[in-house]
Give the backbone structure.
Amino acid sequence: MLKTLLLPSAAALLVMAFLYAPANPAQSASANAKAAAGKAAADAQAMAKAKQVYNIDCALCHGETGDGKTDVAKSMDLTLLDWTDVKTLSDRQDSELFNIIRNGKGKMPSEAPGRATDAEVKNMILYIRSFGKESASAPATPAAPAASTQPSPNNQ
């Protein structure tokens, strides 16, 4: 009796699998390509928004390139980290950077949730990290003489 029930059940499963399988694998690949293109466009929009927020709220002190060498930083007697150096943020977790941006640190004001959503702050962290990646792929330039690397309590 059990065998008589298994055979029709197995046949029904095979028929259902055949009916619900994609009819044209090329359509499936096309759909995957469209989804990937849509994700890439969304990622590009998210990075554009992150750049916009950074330029409005952060670049004044940290610089457009993230080198931390701005007149405002100098006038406030701040020694800011150079994010164009890949090593600068390599030991910092995204969660730590998120907390610094969201809550502020030292003289740095917080990024209020009304000015940037959590997702925008996370994308801004990716944007900030890209400063170092961009300079890592740039051609090497002769190194300048090393300056004193005394840490400042205002490092951010």
